[in-house]
Amino acid sequence: MTKTSTLAAALWDFDGTLVDTEPLWVQAEYDLIEGLGGSWSDEHADQLVGNSLLDSGSYILNAIGRHDLSPAWVVDELILRVMEAFRSRPFPWRAGARELLASFQQAGVPCALVSASYRVMLDAALSQLPSGTFAVSVAGDEVRNGKPHPEPYEIAAAALGVDTRDCVVLEDSVTGARSGNAAGALVIAVPSRISIPAAPRRRHAASLTELDASAVAQWLEHANAVA
Fold this sequence. Notes:
Layout: E1 9-12, H1 22-35, H2 42-48, H3 53-64, H4 71-88, H5 97-106, E2 111-114, H6 119-126, E3 136-138, H7 151-160, E4 167-171, H8 174-182, E5 186-189, E6 202-204, H9 213-226
Parallel strand pairs: 1-2, 1-4, 2-3, 4-5, 5-6
């Protein structure tokens, strides 16, 4: 397949989009908070989906009234637990993720990985993929303003040398979708844990298995034609 004329790049979220990590994060939250003597709920966990890790750490400490601890400490503890889960079981790719990556590669569409998760976690995922699958990766501990700010996706597009309006963003969270839209990209929402509302320059797919490079390019062409 030759490179699409409109689709300049595909910018991927990590947690819940490329890899089904949300259950791992939620279990890590329950384990940590139980150890701190607090109580947690799925409703609380849903509030953290897509947030920057430091914001999530602050939310947890406020929810359980442990102001003697720092958000950075909470983040370190959660990452330790999720990384241990990575090492102890098969890598939990979202259905259709690797096939869609291969479709983009065949079409000559570069991909970037753009995440609120920290570099150590992105590198763990990248090590499981063929070299060059992602031309660029942007981690949550490498940006000044995390999602829903557009900065992470703007940085990725700039590193690829493309205009964000010629990019698609693949996201599973409201926070991430807002970030991609704020950057000017077409967001393809593929929810994993929470629903994502409709918005301008936003399309929905029930699964990555529904998508290939050609279909994504057509969606972008249509979105840019009506803008």
